[in-house]
Amino acid sequence: MVRLEGLSLAFTAAVLLHNAEEAWWLPRWSRTQSWYRPVGDGEFRWAALMLSLGLLVLTGLQLHWGREQEVLSAVFAAYVIAMLVNAVLPHLALSLLQRRYMPGTASAWLGVVPLGLAWLLAAASQGRLHLAAQAWTLALSWLSLGLSVPALLWLGRRLAARRRG
User: Fold this and answer.
1) Residue 131 pLDDT grade (very low, low, confident, very high; cuts 50, 70, 90)
2) Which residue in 95, 138, 152, 162 has the fewest CB atoms around it within 10 Å?
3) Rounded to two decimals, what is the model's pTM?
4) Contacts of residue 34, Cβ cutoff 8 Å, sequence gap at least 6
Protein backbone atom coordinates (compact mmCIF):
# COMPACT_ATOMS: atom_id res chain seq x y z
CA MET A 1 0.00 0.00 0.00
CA VAL A 2 1.27 3.45 -0.91
CA ARG A 3 1.80 5.74 2.04
CA LEU A 4 -0.56 8.69 1.83
CA GLU A 5 1.89 10.92 3.65
CA GLY A 6 4.55 10.42 0.97
CA LEU A 7 2.03 11.14 -1.75
CA SER A 8 0.94 14.29 0.08
CA LEU A 9 4.53 15.53 0.12
CA ALA A 10 5.18 14.54 -3.50
CA PHE A 11 1.94 16.22 -4.66
CA THR A 12 2.82 19.37 -2.73
CA ALA A 13 6.30 19.43 -4.29
CA ALA A 14 4.74 19.05 -7.76
CA VAL A 15 2.35 21.95 -7.11
CA LEU A 16 5.21 24.12 -5.84
CA LEU A 17 7.15 23.36 -9.02
CA HIS A 18 4.02 24.14 -11.06
CA ASN A 19 3.56 27.46 -9.22
CA ALA A 20 7.24 28.32 -9.80
CA GLU A 21 6.91 27.59 -13.53
CA GLU A 22 3.85 29.80 -13.73
CA ALA A 23 5.41 32.57 -11.65
CA TRP A 24 8.42 32.65 -13.94
CA TRP A 25 6.71 32.54 -17.36
CA LEU A 26 2.95 33.13 -17.11
CA PRO A 27 2.91 36.93 -16.61
CA ARG A 28 4.85 37.54 -19.84
CA TRP A 29 2.76 34.92 -21.67
CA SER A 30 -0.46 36.58 -20.43
CA ARG A 31 0.53 39.86 -22.06
CA THR A 32 1.10 38.29 -25.50
CA GLN A 33 -2.32 36.78 -26.18
CA SER A 34 -5.99 37.65 -25.99
CA TRP A 35 -7.55 34.62 -24.27
CA TYR A 36 -6.26 35.40 -20.80
CA ARG A 37 -6.36 38.56 -18.71
CA PRO A 38 -2.86 40.06 -18.60
CA VAL A 39 -1.18 40.00 -15.20
CA GLY A 40 1.89 41.83 -13.98
CA ASP A 41 4.98 40.00 -12.86
CA GLY A 42 4.82 41.23 -9.25
CA GLU A 43 1.11 40.66 -8.70
CA PHE A 44 1.17 37.15 -10.13
CA ARG A 45 4.31 36.14 -8.27
CA TRP A 46 2.80 37.46 -5.04
CA ALA A 47 -0.36 35.41 -5.60
CA ALA A 48 1.65 32.28 -6.50
CA LEU A 49 3.81 32.71 -3.40
CA MET A 50 0.82 33.13 -1.09
CA LEU A 51 -0.97 30.12 -2.62
CA SER A 52 2.24 28.09 -2.24
CA LEU A 53 2.59 29.09 1.42
CA GLY A 54 -1.07 28.23 1.99
CA LEU A 55 -0.54 24.80 0.45
CA LEU A 56 2.49 24.21 2.66
CA VAL A 57 0.43 25.03 5.75
CA LEU A 58 -2.44 22.81 4.56
CA THR A 59 -0.05 19.95 3.82
CA GLY A 60 1.54 20.25 7.25
CA LEU A 61 -1.84 20.26 8.98
CA GLN A 62 -3.10 17.36 6.90
CA LEU A 63 0.04 15.32 7.60
CA HIS A 64 -0.11 16.01 11.33
CA TRP A 65 -3.84 15.73 12.03
CA GLY A 66 -5.35 14.31 8.83
CA ARG A 67 -6.02 10.87 10.29
CA GLU A 68 -8.00 12.30 13.22
CA GLN A 69 -9.56 15.28 11.47
CA GLU A 70 -11.53 14.10 8.45
CA VAL A 71 -12.13 17.70 7.41
CA LEU A 72 -8.39 18.22 6.77
CA SER A 73 -8.31 15.29 4.37
CA ALA A 74 -11.42 16.70 2.70
CA VAL A 75 -9.84 20.15 2.30
CA PHE A 76 -6.64 18.59 0.95
CA ALA A 77 -8.73 16.47 -1.45
CA ALA A 78 -10.53 19.62 -2.60
CA TYR A 79 -7.17 21.24 -3.33
CA VAL A 80 -6.04 18.15 -5.24
CA ILE A 81 -9.23 18.14 -7.31
CA ALA A 82 -8.97 21.88 -7.95
CA MET A 83 -5.42 21.38 -9.26
CA LEU A 84 -6.60 18.54 -11.51
CA VAL A 85 -9.27 20.82 -12.95
CA ASN A 86 -6.65 23.58 -13.31
CA ALA A 87 -4.51 21.22 -15.40
CA VAL A 88 -7.38 20.83 -17.87
CA LEU A 89 -8.89 24.33 -17.65
CA PRO A 90 -7.10 26.57 -18.45
CA HIS A 91 -3.73 24.85 -19.06
CA LEU A 92 -4.43 22.02 -21.49
CA ALA A 93 -7.44 23.69 -23.10
CA LEU A 94 -5.64 26.96 -23.88
CA SER A 95 -2.49 25.19 -25.04
CA LEU A 96 -4.57 23.18 -27.51
CA LEU A 97 -6.84 26.04 -28.60
CA GLN A 98 -3.97 28.45 -29.15
CA ARG A 99 -1.55 25.81 -30.44
CA ARG A 100 0.91 27.45 -28.11
CA TYR A 101 2.29 26.34 -24.77
CA MET A 102 0.65 27.86 -21.71
CA PRO A 103 3.16 28.05 -18.84
CA GLY A 104 2.38 25.46 -16.21
CA THR A 105 1.02 22.81 -18.56
CA ALA A 106 4.07 20.54 -18.48
CA SER A 107 4.49 20.63 -14.71
CA ALA A 108 0.75 20.07 -14.29
CA TRP A 109 0.61 17.00 -16.53
CA LEU A 110 3.96 15.49 -15.60
CA GLY A 111 3.68 16.00 -11.84
CA VAL A 112 0.45 17.44 -10.46
CA VAL A 113 -2.00 15.23 -12.36
CA PRO A 114 -0.38 11.82 -11.79
CA LEU A 115 0.46 12.55 -8.16
CA GLY A 116 -2.97 14.09 -7.51
CA LEU A 117 -4.75 11.07 -8.98
CA ALA A 118 -2.48 8.74 -6.99
CA TRP A 119 -3.27 10.68 -3.80
CA LEU A 120 -7.03 10.48 -4.41
CA LEU A 121 -6.87 6.74 -5.11
CA ALA A 122 -4.70 6.06 -2.05
CA ALA A 123 -6.91 8.22 0.19
CA ALA A 124 -10.02 6.41 -1.03
CA SER A 125 -8.46 2.97 -0.56
CA GLN A 126 -7.38 3.88 2.97
CA GLY A 127 -10.84 5.13 3.91
CA ARG A 128 -9.73 8.76 4.20
CA LEU A 129 -11.83 10.09 1.35
CA HIS A 130 -15.61 10.27 1.41
CA LEU A 131 -16.52 12.77 -1.30
CA ALA A 132 -20.28 12.46 -0.86
CA ALA A 133 -20.10 12.95 2.91
CA GLN A 134 -17.57 15.76 2.51
CA ALA A 135 -19.36 17.63 -0.28
CA TRP A 136 -19.85 20.76 1.84
CA THR A 137 -16.13 20.85 2.62
CA LEU A 138 -15.29 20.46 -1.05
CA ALA A 139 -17.68 23.24 -2.03
CA LEU A 140 -16.39 25.64 0.62
CA SER A 141 -12.77 24.83 -0.23
CA TRP A 142 -13.30 25.45 -3.94
CA LEU A 143 -15.16 28.68 -3.21
CA SER A 144 -12.36 29.86 -0.91
CA LEU A 145 -9.67 28.96 -3.43
CA GLY A 146 -11.64 30.53 -6.29
CA LEU A 147 -12.08 33.78 -4.39
CA SER A 148 -8.53 33.86 -3.06
CA VAL A 149 -6.90 34.00 -6.50
CA PRO A 150 -8.49 37.30 -7.61
CA ALA A 151 -8.10 38.71 -4.10
CA LEU A 152 -4.40 37.84 -4.05
CA LEU A 153 -3.90 39.30 -7.53
CA TRP A 154 -5.66 42.49 -6.43
CA LEU A 155 -3.53 42.71 -3.30
CA GLY A 156 -0.42 42.00 -5.37
CA ARG A 157 -1.31 44.87 -7.73
CA ARG A 158 -1.78 47.20 -4.75
CA LEU A 159 1.54 46.17 -3.22
CA ALA A 160 3.36 46.53 -6.56
CA ALA A 161 1.83 49.99 -7.12
CA ARG A 162 2.78 51.06 -3.62
CA ARG A 163 6.32 49.85 -4.16
CA ARG A 164 6.61 51.82 -7.43
CA GLY A 165 4.94 54.93 -6.05
Assistant:
1) confident
2) 162
3) 0.91
4) none
